[in-house]
Amino acid sequence: MTYNKQKILIICSFLFIPLLLLATFTYYPAIKLIYYSFTNWDGYSPEKPWVGLANYREVFANSDIFKVFEHNFAYFVMGIVQNIVAIYFAIVLNSKLKGKYFFRILLFLPYIMNGVAVAFMFGFVFDTTNGSLNLLLSNLGLTHLSETSWLGREGLVNYSLASTGLWRFMGYNMVIYIASLQAIPKDIYEAATIDGANSMQTLWRITLPNMKPVIQLNLFLTVTGALEVFDLPFVLTKGGPAGASQTYVMRVIDTAFAYNNYGLASAMSIILLMFVVLVLGFQQLVLNRGGDK
């Protein structure tokens, strides 16, 4: 056997197990999900009646299903704020600041915490009567805010939940931005300083343009995360009050496990996937067009 054939055989051997695992736990379930979306399966019966596009027609005909996407908007807004704050801390902690490694670790620690544990912890923070947030507001003299029901008001609950995600994931985005900043050649900054550029000009003309691919990546994660939120509202509010914090994924889970309509839930999952692809495609189109200009 020649050297090239041996090399190809070794490469294929190393790729076989990862590809097998990928096909078993990703592609096969995805294909089965598409198949179930065309059936009226209840989740446990051996019969899976074929209904064609009936599930998809039911999803698009029911406006209440898509209305829950309004609740996801708060997570998108807080995700944008999260990225802005992460860029700020990344720039600050990438400078010659004493103790910057300590602050990096401090800001990154929330990300490694378990999501359910974080949700329970913030349940005590947002508690109306004994919560630490209302206690802090009361001590600051903001009595008109100290009795706010952060998880009980329809217009406020989603932003309260989304702020939890901001606290948890900001450090993760910050670390990614720091890595991006460290990849920018120092010579560019030195040349800009010699030309008389100030800090704001350096930020807008050098730093942010060079960080654009990483910003696009984090925006991708922000959009997908905002559309697929589940754990925080499920643990803290169960979708309440009166369904005001129910997200699309929670509606899918309820359809499958509470109402035993796995066919309809599968169709809803496929529609969510297509919606995510469309939104991200539009996002890339806008960002790339802005870059061409």
From TrEMBL:
Membrane topology, as annotated: Multi-pass membrane protein
This protein's record includes keyword Transmembrane helix: yes
Domain of life: Bacteria
Entry keywords, A to Z: Cell membrane, Membrane, Transmembrane, Transmembrane helix, Transport
GO cellular component: plasma membrane
Ranges where the ABC transmembrane type-1 domain occurs: 72-283
InterPro entries from the UniProt entry: ABC_transporter_permease, MetI-like, MetI-like_sf
Subcellular location as annotated: Cell membrane
Protein's GO biological process: transmembrane transport
Main subcellular location: membrane
Membrane-crossing segments per the record: 7-28, 73-93, 105-126, 264-287
Record SUPFAM superfamilies: MetI-like (SSF161098)
Pfam families: BPD_transp_1 (PF00528)
Family per similarity comment: Belongs to the binding-protein-dependent transport system permease family.
Protein name: ABC transporter permease
